[in-house]
Amino acid sequence: MKKIINCLSILIIALFAFACNASTNEAQSSTENTESVGGQSAVQDDESQKDIVKVAASSKDHSTLVAAVKQAELVDVLSNAGPFTVFAPTNAAFEKLPKETLNALMKDDKKSELQDILQYHVSVGVFKPEMLQDGQVINQANSKNITISKKDGKLIVNGTATIIASIPASNGIIHVIDGVLQPQ
């Protein structure tokens, strides 16, 4: 009887060890697969409201902004939960800049300057149009401030860029602007 109990004990221990090892291998495999997939921007979801990056990427008027966000490696940041308010210059707004300036900013050695400019277009929090007031100062992601003004019923950022549309996103709001904001 003692031999049977010892054999059963050894068998139970062996089965337990095998089960634990299999769980560990599955967990490692799952972790390896998750790590190679990417950040928040890689999440596939065709049913929920689009985040800020996906809204901008689906706009033909924001291809320059999307290219700059990719070059600055800010896609995952702006795909996160937020909430964010993004002042999004149109392609026409970027065309107002000297071509050599934009081309220079898109080079790898200017990544930190590009990040600073793009972060100057992002606020943490949601600022809906009805919340924006004349003279309001808003701190941006790069720790510098923008100033909102109202003129003839239009909202203007830093006296140079007019908000021409506002688009809600799952992680905030996008204010489409007709100028590129320059950090001061």
From TrEMBL:
Gene3D superfamilies according to UniProt: FAS1 domain (2.30.180.10)
Source organism of the structure: Paraflavisolibacter caeni
Listed InterPro entries: Adhesion/Biosynth-related (IPR050904), FAS1_dom_sf (IPR036378), FAS1_domain (IPR000782)
Limits of the FAS1 domain: 49-181
Entry-linked SMART domains: FAS1 (SM00554)
Alphabetical keyword list: Signal
Protein name, UniProt field: Fasciclin domain-containing protein
Keyword Signal: yes
